Amino acid sequence: MRRVEKSTKLDLERIIFIGRTFEEYMNMFSLSLDEMRGKRILDCPAGACSFTAHGSDLGLDITACDIAYDHEVEQLKQKGIQDIEHAMLHMEKVKDNYIWDYYHDVDGLRQNRIKALNDCTKHMVNASEQYIPVVLPNLPFKNEEFDILLTANFLFMYADRLDYDFHINTIEELLRVTREEIRIFPLVDLEGKRYEHLDKVIAHLMEKGLEVKEVKEVKEVKVSYEFQANANTMLQISKKKR
Q1: Closest CA to 132 of 60, 228, 63
Q2: Cα 124 to chain center, whole Å?
Q3: Cα–Cα distance between 136 and 132 in angstroms, integer?
Q4: Contact 45, 66 (CB under 8 A)
Q5: Is the pLDDT of residue 19 over 60?
Q6: How many structural domains are present in the chain?
Q7: What's the gap between Cα 189 and its chain centre?
């Protein structure tokens, strides 16, 4: 059984506990069940996403990690409900900046977020060992413990508060614990602008002689999912086969 040291708790009020559904993950990362079967998958950071819950029901081997998982499940659920309602009030003011093909309207988005939260927290109660508390950029996992790693709606979205060094250190740590590939979605910030240092990040990963020697390919991939305008690409980082 994996031995994990508890991380230092972040005040729950400073955590936004909102998540996406399994179906959203499949679209935003261009995933298929066939490519995930038999793989060890890490969702990092996972928040209130139901990807782990539904994937586990389908027989997939998925682990979720997030700083929020240091808190009790009921606390997280109540915080999630509050965060969803706050987000929906804000969404009404800026809804013209979004594409509503997937959710249709704000109420449809609300129901989607509530479903993800309920499914996630229900699964956390029954499978707590799959939800690991972490504080990025450090992960309590072994080298290449996972085959595929997914990271959604975090890294580049918060470019205004997570600097370039944090991005590089985090990606290198994600690479350390991953054997095959990493997928990062989206590649824009909260204003819908392409992350300004993305080309620099890609060049860093591909440059020979760096500590990250195992990177084979880094490419931007267009996906079928687009809710925030311009947020329809992911970064796919593939590692060399040994």
Answers
A1: 63
A2: 17
A3: 12
A4: yes
A5: yes
A6: 1
A7: 14
CA distance 107 to 193: 26
Q: Which domain holds residue 24?
A: 17-239
| Nearest of 215, 223, 155, 218 to residue 188 by alpha carbon | 155
| Rg over CA atoms, the chain | 17
Residue 178 lies in a domain: yes
Q: For residue 235, what are the CA distances in angstroms to 7, 63, 177, 191? A: 28, 21, 17, 18
pLDDT, average across residues 198-212: 74
Instruction: Report helix, strand or coil for 52.
Output: helix
Q: What is the dihedral of CA 139, 142, 144, 145, to 10 degrees?
A: -90
Q: DSSP assignment, residue 240?
A: P
2 lies in a domain?
A: no
Q: What is the CATH number of the domain that holds 107?
A: 3.40.50.150
SS3 call for 32: coil
| E strand or H helix at 1 | none
pLDDT at site 11: 59
pTM as predicted: 0.91
Short-list 86, 74, 65, 105, CA closest to 16: 86
